[in-house]
Amino acid sequence: MPERNLEALFNPGTVAVIGASATPGKVGHSILSNLVEAGFQGKIFPVNPKGGEMLGLPVVPSIAELPSPLDLAVVSIPPRHVVDAVRQLAERKVRAVIVITAGFKETGREGYYLEQELTSIARENNIALLGPNCLGLNNTACGLNASFAAGQPPRGNIAFFSQSGALCTAILDWALGENIGFSKFISLGNKAVLDESDMLEYLRDDPDTDVIIGYMESLDDGARFIRVAREVTARKPVIVIKSGTTAAGAKAASSHTGAMAGSEQAYAAAFSQAGVMRAADVATLFNLAQAFSRQPLPAGPNLAIITNSGGPGIMAADVCEKSALLMSPLTASTVERMKTFLPPFASLYNPIDIIGDADAVRYRQTLEAVAADELVNAILVLLTPTASAQIVETAQAVADVAATCDKPIFACFMGQKRVAPGRELLLEAGVPCYGFPEPAIASVEAMYRHYVWKNSPAPVEVCYRSDRGRAERLIASARRSGCVEIVEFQAQELLRAYELPVPPTTLARTSDEAVAAAEQIGYPVVVKIASPQISHKSDVGGVRVGLADAQAVRAAFMDVTSRAQRLRKDAFISGCLVQAMAPKGAKEVIVGFKRDPQFGPLIMFGLGGIYVEVLKDIAFRLAPLTLNDAHVMIREIRSYPLLRGVRGEPPVDFKAIEDILLTMSQLALDFPDIYEAEFNPILVSHDGATVADVRVTLCTHAE
Known about the structure:
- This protein is an alpha/beta fold.
- It is 38% helix and 22% strand.
- It is built from 24 helices and 31 strands.
- The strands form six sheets. It has a seven-stranded mixed sheet with strand order 9-8-11-10-12-13-14, sandwiched between helices.
- InterPro entries: Acyl-CoA_Synth/Transferase, ATP-grasp, ATP_grasp_subdomain_1, CoA-bd, Ligase_CoA_dom, NAD(P)-bd_dom_sf, Succ_CoA_lig_flav_dom, Succinyl-CoA_synth-like.
- In the N-terminal section; belongs to the acetate CoA ligase alpha subunit family.
- Residues 492-528 form the ATP-grasp domain.
- It comes from Desulfobaculum xiamenense.
């Protein structure tokens, strides 16, 4: 496999530059110059038909004259010649290739087929191919700068990958200004062979990388990304910016699930289930990267705030209150210790206000006392530039304590001009320093969430008993009859195959049959229209509930069928379903899934009935669901307190809902032929749940 040659891509002993140029300003010259200036210790072979010498290196006139085998080739020639060049490189047994050249699938049909040919050659010859249409890569650990980017990033422990080359150049320039170091800097380009998952697999075991950050636009194999990312985040933090997740151009869907389960929901679920942190912007991306790369993880949620001003301290406490963090209590011994050196009017409780005239000594003493407190997991030091503030000296005190402390310490020096020297000192000492409390606390919270993720038990997947053959026969029958949608009176057979709870239900073709069914089931009952063409029954007034006698059932049957025939002249009316009423006080919830093209089945949960699209109070996860996924989904919707019970109501049977969620997940994985499915409503009470309505949509050939 090409990914097995990633070591040759990142740590080559020999590098050939195809299209090397002696003319400054040309891409081929920039690549060669960067390789030389970065101090690469391996052999460099410029390749150009003119021969001669470039930057003190002898030029090889053709690819055929390169040594064999060859570790890495960087290709920067016109796109029409790239495929032949890579084919010739394959003959020289090249292990890795970076194609800088643009003009492939991003340009249209002709470029697409050119890229397909390039991909085939790389895969057939096990070549680790990066690009095309990329900036290149940089491995600071071995002095490899195989890119045409301007500037050499300093060495650090942060690895960065990006699908956008233009963003790479902007971030690199910004990082150079902020003196942020990298272990690896990778431009993925069109991802003809190597993609984000390959980079994560390599960086997982890279000893020079402690933090992985990236910019993503799309994923071709979402399931693989989740699998790989979950392995990586168990060891290292992964933080990404993800763009391009709007619903524009999304396929219209018939179900509530399909209408709301878009690309954004799929990516959010994928990141959550894989432990990947998502940054909203570049500033947040690097705030988090610096925090993770320079400070230990907090071993708990307790944050202590030290400030020389009450207002900012209260602001920080308010932000903390809205996060997953807690304002840490202090032990009695810590409070007594602080009384020995703080003024009598200082606030000795969190946030700890050491008063506006605090000097560096007071900051140091307070920080040492709080750092030693066993109840404190992380510390934020706030400073406002009062007349008495010793900015540089205080920064040095914070840096000194942080150097010997096993808890993360963050600083927030508010202001700009006066505090700049202090901020610079802290950043050089490895203490993240912010201008405002919000990003500081967001960084602490992200680190705490990652600590929880790393220390969580392994996910437990559950497999429920099912009669898969029975379900296959139902779907095959629907296919033979030309149906794409399987509605309730047919789909109930699918529910029974998976042993899902369904209320007693009978299909009645006449009003007399409806009355007989109601008397057998027992009053009160529900009457629903039964038609393969009518999936949203409420749209045609096709449901009547609480029918308590034969006369009510007969009237409901006649009214529902005649109304449906009048409003949906295209529909074949099979009759009505007569169904047992839900237990009194039952709540309505919805469970559904839609098949996402990148990630597979996207499972949803929320309040059910007709209000689901109005309230949009929904949780999403990707199949396969684990026990914890099902547990958390139910509890993360805003309406969860209604299910837990209000004003003396008993809580619903949460285990019954979890069982249905896990069964839906299994159904979605068992049958790739199902595009979307929905159980709505599920009627759940304190002692069980029943699936009162179901709809299943099969994939068309275009999907």
